[in-house]
Amino acid sequence: MKSCLVVDDSRVIRKVARRIIESLGFHVDEASDGAEALETCRAAMPDAILLDRNMPVMNGIDFVKTLRQDPGGDKPVVIFCTTENDIPSITEALRAGVDEYIMKPFDAEIVQSKFQQVGLIGEERRAG
Fold this sequence. Notes:
Layout: E1 3-7, H1 11-23, E2 27-31, H2 34-43, E3 48-52, H3 60-69, E4 77-82, H4 87-96, E5 100-103, H5 108-117
Parallel strand pairs: 1-2, 1-3, 3-4, 4-5
Helix pairs in contact: 2-3
């Protein structure tokens, strides 16, 4: 079973994302900030990371820059999940090592579509 780490300082966002991603057949872990997410990744690297940009302790940009330097940190598909959609913010995230972008608010169809787009799931998998 593939694994996904949901990183967001909002418990509500984590719970909604968990429900959607579990329906796609993933084991889901959660972290409330980038520092906690790094600890989780260093213990067991996930296949995918759904990552918020703005969080206390360590933000999403700093997290992904650090992750990509760690052994095995180049492997997870990192999907940024944020309200910021301006070109400089997107460019900064992509340069830091993010693979894809999802805008908040999101729904099951958007998450499923992005997971298919980056090759995490096949076309036949449907969110429930």
